[in-house]
Design brief:
Layout lengths: L10 H10 L7 H13 L3 H11 L4 H4 L2 H4 L34 H13 L5 H19 L16 E4 L2 E4 H11 L5 H8 L4 H8 L3 H10 L1 H4 L6 E2 L1 H30 L2
Parallel strand pairs: 1-3
Antiparallel strand pairs: 1-2
Length: 260
């Protein structure tokens, strides 16, 4: 579980991020879609509390921060917090744990930090930025991947003739190749009814993990590895549902923390 010590960002890193912006421009869209959808469903009091912490930055804007800091050695310890690998047929509780943590322990730790009255503003801001990012990560099926191929990273495929790996197809290509901005994509898919939003929000971190595991067989069904329109058309509804679920659930989680 992340501790108060491990989530303190050195001032130099913060300055670097403000000057340089995102170091991973191709990974922005999906996370920002989730952030924008969450913004659409926040209680007004939650939105006010978040503005007090983040200032002018939106959830969409801070959603990629946890990826942007990956290149800094000061945050190397956070790499395992973005995923959990679970073998087919296993459950999270019985799976071999990474002693450095995983996405579930990180989510629990950052939620705890945000709820802790004596947490510093610096700790709360870092915890919030991680939480925004990791809620999206756990909804990406290959961030709850198989250990033997590191969540599809070692599974080589091509995407419309371009060599890549299956994890990258899900992290980047299927979202980016819509050619929509994050705000356009969020508006396009944010169409669930209030009742559906509520049902999605009445769930736990472990429910989200099990949902990602439940669709892995379809995700891994890559045939000869030459992925084109047939794979994209088959998986697009799942991609959009997971983005929408992540945004709705992020809003519900933040409301539970910040709404009076």
């Amino acid at each position: 579980m992340p501790s108060a010590k491990t989530i303190r960002a050195p001032l130099s890193i913060v300055v670097l991020l403000l000057v340089c912006g995102s170091a991973f421009p191709w990974g922005q869209t999906g996370h920002r879609v989730v952030g924008r959808i969450a913004e659409n469903h926040l209680a007004p009091s939650t939105a006010e509390a978040l503005a007090d912490l983040l200032g002018p930055d939106s959830l969409a804007e801070v959603s990629t921060w946890a990826d942007e800091i990956k290149s800094d050695p000061a945050w190397e310890h956070a790499d395992p917090w973005h995923y959990v690998n679970i073998p087919d047929g296993a459950r999270y509780a019985a799976a071999r744990r990474n002693p450095r943590g995983d996405v579930i322990t990180a989510l629990r730790g950052f939620e705890s930090t945000l709820r802790r009255r004596n947490a510093t503003a610096e700790e709360r801001v870092a915890a919030l930025k991680f939480l925004v990012h990791l809620v999206a990560d756990v909804h990406q099926p290959l961030h709850v991947g198989r250990p033997d191929d590191r969540g599809g990273t070692d599974l080589r495929v091509s995407w419309f003739g371009r060599p890549t790996n299956l994890h990258a197809v899900w992290d980047h290509h299927m979202v980016n190749d819509t050619k929509l901005s994050f705000s356009e994509y969020a508006a396009f898919i944010d169409d669930a009814s209030p009742d559906q939003i509520t049902r999605w929000q009445n769930s736990t971190y472990l429910d989200w993990v099990e949902e990602s595991m439940a669709v892995r067989e379809s995700v891994y069904a890559v045939g000869d590895g030459d992925l084109r329109y047939a794979y994209w058309d088959r998986q697009r509804p799942l991609v959009e549902r997971r983005l929408l679920q992540a945004g709705a659930r992020l809003a519900g989680l933040l409301d539970s923390i910040f709404a009076p």
